Amino acid sequence: MRAEYQTAHPLGEQLLTLAQQVQDSGMLIAAHRALGTTLFEMGAAADALTHYTQGIALYDPQQHRTRRISVTGSTLVLQDECHQHRIMGVHV
Prior knowledge:
The protein is built from four helices and no strands. The chain has about 90 residues and is an all-alpha fold.
């Protein structure tokens, strides 16, 4: 599998714009996560951290219960927090 980050980045931006237009917090979380992951892999750690932080701030366990998809025993939000700490550790 080959990652296409140059293609993924504008698609993530489109998802973020759409989520903002419809004011859907679940979509906003997904968009920030997609952009955070893409930017991190592209080497833009500071921008990735911004998106991870924004997505985590929007997460409400009661409202987004169905978004707590288990991935190898952890939630997506927990993974985002791990990425966030990993980036912060790189820049300390």
